[in-house]
């Protein structure tokens, strides 16, 4: 590959900054709205007439959430012999993101052999390298059956209040179904991606056609199913807002089914080769015991810039991310080298657009102009070719997004786009405040609400424990680790949390929480070590990765442990190994 000369690098950096500037909005995260504001939050998969008798009971642990985080927490509890627990879940089944995401073409972009957890224990072989949403949802159900989680679950149930009783050292939880549960420990495992969001568009409520978010897919309107082609769109004009990972998978399906498709773009995604292929049975059955943990850790090491001897997964992710170009280089020569590597990865993505998309004007609109760590890269083999079809049209908003809606459809630069169907592929809230994503405001010691304690952002030790909220454990990458393979992070986080709970139950500890001093020290540690990432993020176009470009204390407190997820996991393991529970306030049983 030809290396760019300094003048080319300077031109690219100037283009990156120009594109970033177009997309910055003062509202930051406030530019998005919730589905409930526009009555788009109905669960299409649940029985609307479901009822049950309320329960009143004491338990050791309540796990909020039935997605990967909640399921892994519950599984780890059972493995530790803790079986007196409840799982509270808004949806009608396990699955989390994969319960909600049933849109056509939906699949995971991480290799299934490292994304689907506990494959060795369930003896399950994924069918393809990148599993479909239907297969993943089915696997979640399999896990629920295999580990006996269904008997612990309260589905179609939302928490109404959670209040700490300091005399009893217990949480009192009330649900909207009238349940009263007293629990010693509470695990907030609501998931990284469970609360869908809508773009803030002036007049969005005026749209007279059919509209829904991709997490609330209406197959009654489109026809088909998650596994069958849509057969009711042949005479329909469809618009889709969003060009991230969801849209990349969905647009090719719409292109094959609809009369016309309009893709409304704020920022193009970088699209690499996916290379889907079936899992070879003989290869899979030949893997030695312990293979999944080794393969999972190897992937994480490669994509965070470490260089193990082998690349076991060997896909688009490991090729693009094997060099961490966010780090602070010690010399000017290395700085140039890192910039060049970053440029080469993204230039290859831009060149791929030219190779596939036939119309030069359309191709130019689809090229990503930002660094490789700025947005989650996408890998797909059908998205770019879809724009060669005469019924698929890119509507580039030049970084502004859709700002105005008429009854007929979106209005861009004074042009109205009449639609029969408008699909919001606008993703999920990820870095917004925890209370808003929980849907209730926990009340800790002395009547203090979490929204008050965290008014300026997260206060935590390791992203897990918080002062004044005893026995309240949070599963979130905010102030914690992070990885391209979310399930690897969730596995490490839930193992840590359930290990702490087991220690407390075994050692007569009634309650545990962070100290304020430990919270402050942990945040300072993150700030001291994350200067390189913060500097890189300042050059990026807005996204959930940099809280839409906002620069406030709330976003500053949203720092993530820099470097490899394995470094974060090692830090937690070392902290546990000391046995001192440093940085916590502990109350022991009298």
Structural overview:
The strands form six sheets. Strands 2, 3, 4, 5, 6, 7 and 19 form a seven-stranded mixed sheet that branches. β6 (170-175) and β7 form a beta hairpin. The protein is globular, with a radius of gyration of 24 Å. 46% of the residues are buried. The chain is an alpha/beta fold and 590 residues long. The protein has two domains: 6-39 and 196-274 and 327-424, FAD/NAD(P)-binding domain, CATH 3.50.50; 56-195 and 430-588, FAD/NAD(P)-binding domain. The mean pLDDT is 92. It is 34% helix and 16% strand.
Rg over alpha carbons: 24 Å
Q: Profile the largest sheet.
A: 7 strands, mixed
Can you give the mean pLDDT?
92
- Large-scale geometry: globular
- Quickly give the CATH architecture of the largest domain: 3-Layer(bba) Sandwich
Helix content: 25-40%
Output the CATH homologous superfamily of the largest domain: FAD/NAD(P)-binding domain
Distance, first to last CA = 69 Å
What is the domain total for the residues? 2
How many β-strand runs?
21
Per CATH, what is the topology of the largest domain? FAD/NAD(P)-binding domain
CATH class of the largest domain: Alpha Beta
Strand content: 15-25%
């Amino acid at each position: 590959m030809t290396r760019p000369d300094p003048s080319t690098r300077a031109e690219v950096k100037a283009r990156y900054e120009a594109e970033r500037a177009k997309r910055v909005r003062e509202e930051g995260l406030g530019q998005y709205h919730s589905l409930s504001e526009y009555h788009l939050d109905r669960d299409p998969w649940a029985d609307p007439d479901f009822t049950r008798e309320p329960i009143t009971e004491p338990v050791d642990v309540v796990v909020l959430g039935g997605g990967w985080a909640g399921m892994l927490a519950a599984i780890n509890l059972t493995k530790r012999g803790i079986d007196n627990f409840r799982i509270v879940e808004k949806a009608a089944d396990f699955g989390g993101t994969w319960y909600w995401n049933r849109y056509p073409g939906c699949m995971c972009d991480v290799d299934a052999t490292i994304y689907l957890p506990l494959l060795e224990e369930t003896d399950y072989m994924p069918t393809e390298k990148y599993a479909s949403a239907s297969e993943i949802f089915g696997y979640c159900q399999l896990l629920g059956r295999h580990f006996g989680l269904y008997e612990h679950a309260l589905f179609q149930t939302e928490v109404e209040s959670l209040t700490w009783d300091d005399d009893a050292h217990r949480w009192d939880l009330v649900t909207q179904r009238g349940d009263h549960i007293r629990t010693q420990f509470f695990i907030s495992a609501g998931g990284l991606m469970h609360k869908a969001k809508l773009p803030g568009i002036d007049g969005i409520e005026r749209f007279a056609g059919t509209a829904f978010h991709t997490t609330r897919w209406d197959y009654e309107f489109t026809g088909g199913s998650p596994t069958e082609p849509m057969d009711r769109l042949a005479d329909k004009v469809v618009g889709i807002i969003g060009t991230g990972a969801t849209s990349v998978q969905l647009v090719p399906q719409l292109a094959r089914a609809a009369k016309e498709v309009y893709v409304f773009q704020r920022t193009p995604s970088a699209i690499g080769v996916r290379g889907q292929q079936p899992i070879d049975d003989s290869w899979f059955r030949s893997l030695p015991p312990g293979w999944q943990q080794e393969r999972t850790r190897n992937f994480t090491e490669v994509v965070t810039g470490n260089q193990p001897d082998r690349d076991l997964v060997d896909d688009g992710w490991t090729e693009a991310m094997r060099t961490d170009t966010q780090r602070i280089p010690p010399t000017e020569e290395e700085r140039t080298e890192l910039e060049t590597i970053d440029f080469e990865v993204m230039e290859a993505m831009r060149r791929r657009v030219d190779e596939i998309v036939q119309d030069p004007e359309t191709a130019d609109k689809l090229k990503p102009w930002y660094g490789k760590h700025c947005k989650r890269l996408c890998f797909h083999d059908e998205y770019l070719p879809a724009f060669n079809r005469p019924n698929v049209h890119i509507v580039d908003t030049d970084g502004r997004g859709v700002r105005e809606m008429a009854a007929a459809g979106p209005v861009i630069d004074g042009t109205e786009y009449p639609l029969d169907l408008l699909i919001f592929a606008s993703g999920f809230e990820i870095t917004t405040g925890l209370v808003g994503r929980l849907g209730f405001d926990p009340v800790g010691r002395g009547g203090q609400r979490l929204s008050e304690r965290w008014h300026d952002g997260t206060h935590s030790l390791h992203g897990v424990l918080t002062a004044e909220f005893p026995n309240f454990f949070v599963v979130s990458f905010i102030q914690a680790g992070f990885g391209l393979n979310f399930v690897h992070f969730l596995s490490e986080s839930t193992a840590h949390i359930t290990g702490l709970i087991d220690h407390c139950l075994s050692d007569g500890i009634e309650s545990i929480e962070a100290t304020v001093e430990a919270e402050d020290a942990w945040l300072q540690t993150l700030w001291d070590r994350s200067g390189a990432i913060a500097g890189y993020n300042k050059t990026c176009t807005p996204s959930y990765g940099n809280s839409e470009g906002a620069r406030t204390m709330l976003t500053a407190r949203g720092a993530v442990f820099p470097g490899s997820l394995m470094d974060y996991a090692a830090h937690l393991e070392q902290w546990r190994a000391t046995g001192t529970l440093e940085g916590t306030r502990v109350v022991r049983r009298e």
